[in-house]
Design goal:
Blueprint lengths: L2 E6 L9 H4 L9 E5 L5 E5 L1 H13 L1 E4 L5 H5 L9 E3 L4 E3 L7 H32 L6 E5 L2 E7 L6 H17 L5 E5 L4 E5 L4 H16 L2 E6 L6 H5 L3 E3 L5 H5 L5
Parallel strand pairs: 1-4, 1-11, 11-12
Antiparallel strand pairs: 2-3, 5-6, 7-8, 8-10, 9-10
């Protein structure tokens, strides 16, 4: 029998914040799934999600494929035991929890080359914030000694504010000097990534290793966001949670 592997995004796919649980399940049926650095609960699973996790654990190996950093991933309590893909594909963890060094070396070189562009865009965003009085700030995400991407969150969780930053600063920059970068936008999260940073590349790297280890395999991809679509499309089957950005762009429009 062929071995089955599920490459699964985490946030808004296998669990979500309390706010996003509204309408999905009763509050007393929720269980913690991830925590903030101070130990308070960040995200929860619904009964349906827990039933799904039990189902896939019976016949599949789950490989988290997430934007979370090493620290944020360490605060997820779902007990993963195989490989993990972090930072949009920037870091791969081996089953023993150590960083895959060959991949890390490759990504460090690519991301170091992309760093001047990220810094240029961050400066442009900061200048725009100063001129407009906007309270959000661009943050450069670095992990394990490697810079990866810029992220901006609106302090008041007003989507229109992030739309303004994207329209007035980010998209004009990408159309000009930033052609080697792309935008990931979902909810209160605006991220600008080098095109060399892609979950799909990390999924392909692990998939090749799994095929060397096990021969022919079956792969599943699962995610909620437009940015997940490429790695999901490279898998044999794709799974999309309902009421997500990706479901609205695909199955909910049919």
């Amino acid at each position: 029998m062929l071995k089955k592997f599920l490459f699964a995004d985490l946030d808004d796919t296998l669990f979500q914040t309390l706010e996003k649980c509204a309408g999905r399940a009763s509050p007393d049926s929720l269980e913690p799934a991830a925590y903030y650095s101070d130990g308070s609960i960040c995200s929860y699973t619904t009964p349906a999600q827990r039933a799904f996790i039990d189902f896939i654990n019976q016949g599949m190996t789950v490989i988290p494929t997430t934007a979370r950093s090493l620290d944020a991933f360490s605060r997820v309590s779902l007990g993963f035991t195989s490989y993990a893909i972090l930072n949009f594909g920037g870091i791969i963890l081996q089953p023993d929890g150590s960083i895959e060094r060959d991949w890390q070396g490759r990504m460090h070189g690519l991301m170091s080359a992309a760093l001047p562009g990220l810094r240029d865009l961050a400066a442009r965003i900061e200048d725009w914030c100063a001129r407009t009085g906007y309270g959000g700030r661009a943050r450069l995400v670095e992990d394990a000694g490697t810079p990866f991407f810029i992220v901006l969150k609106d302090p008041d969780k007003v989507a229109l504010n992030l739309e303004r930053v994207e329209r007035d600063v980010v998209l004009p920059w990408i159309a000009g000097d930033g052609r080697d970068y792309c935008v990931h936008r979902n909810g209160n999260n605006l991220a600008i990534l080098p095109r060399a940073l892609d979950k799909a590349d990390a999924v392909a790297y692990i998939g090749e290793r799994l095929r060397r280890e096990h021969g022919e395999i079956v792969t599943f991809g699962m995610g909620d966001s437009r940015s997940d679509a490429r790695f999901m499309a490279d898998c044999d089957y794709a799974i999309i949670p309902r009421r997500t950005q990706l479901s609205r762009l695909t199955v909910e429009t049919l």
